[in-house]
Amino acid sequence: MTLAACTTTKPVVNPNLVVLGHAGSGFYTPISPFNYRPPSSWRGIRRALLRGADGVEIDLQMSRDSVVMLYHDQHLQDGSTGTGCVSQRTAAELTQLRYQGGFPYDLIQKEHPITFDTLLARLNRWPSFPFIHLDLHEDDQCLPPGRQNEKVPLLVRQIARSLARYHAPLNKVLFITQDGATVRLARAAMPGVRVGLEIASDEFAVGLKTAKAEKVQTVVLDADRVTPEQSAQAHAAGFKVVVFGGRSAGDLRRVLRTQPDEIEVDNVRRLLIMQGRGGK
């Protein structure tokens, strides 16, 4: 292979790329890197920020007593000592649960789920309030079919109240949904907040049409399936592009070739090194 061919495969580094930790520091991994921190846990969030990330993406759900919680999985038993759904337990019960990732992760991690208010209070003590992407978990799998989204309006209002209570700068917030109706709810509850529509790659054309109709500012695409052509189409339509995922060097090079504006990455350190920003 010639030198010219090698250089053409190297992604161009966007100096304005915003790097966020995906669910904090990503998900449990045994190597490259070893990550024992649960997704959307405080220790995972803190680690990503200490490594130099510009912000974090987190997953939000609502407890039985209408408190917004950080939790990734649909069912508590999939990642903690609890059972059922977040919506079936009070915030006091949820914060007493232990995260579980199995061996060897549980030998090291001693994390408990936290509330969104707790996170905002801690981020307010950070030297500079980081970017936060709020991934709304809208489908409550413990409700009957046809009713699984019925608490979304209250969840949106509670998120808005927490952001206002802690004076979170809305220019640092991206509210992510897969539903056009939720876009409208977010705008009504949080005037000025940036809203992103997550689009499945196999439904890109339909999703882009919805994004245009709802006049969102940002589209959110999966790192495993996004193509440079999709990203270019989104940019041509006036959208910012957020890509989520990516851990290996090969994955990150491929994602960087799509020229995103922001990446929610599973390996903050590796991406920052590739950007020439060090990586602690």
TrEMBL record:
Q: Where does the source fall among the domains of life?
A: Bacteria
* InterPro entries (UniProt xref): GP_PDE_dom, PLC-like_Pdiesterase_TIM-brl
Signal sequence coordinates: none
Q: What range(s) does the GP-PDE domain occupy? A: 17-280
**Name the record gives this protein:** GP-PDE domain-containing protein
Its source organism is: Hymenobacter negativus
